[in-house]
User: What shape does this take?
Amino acid sequence: VETQGLVLLESLSSGLPVIGADAEAIPELVKDRRNGFLFDPENPRQAAELAWDVLKDENLRKKLSKNSRPSIRQHSIGTVANKVEKIYRGLL
Assistant: This one.
């Protein structure tokens, strides 16, 4: 199980909808029904069903894809670097 979301970030930045476990840091990236879906990590069948729903419904796929890139702007390298710099400056 990938808990830091690197694959999800890459997928979202490519404009793809995602399906992720509702655990760890994943819900910070996956906005349920906005850029993808969250599933119960104890229910792999739910993950498969959600994936099937996205694959078979072109309109749903387009809607989720449209929201993918904007949903992760806060995780861009520039934004994250600025946040880290502010933290370090606050420690000086």
Q: What stands out?
A: The chain has a mean pLDDT of 93. The beta strands are 18-21, 36-39.
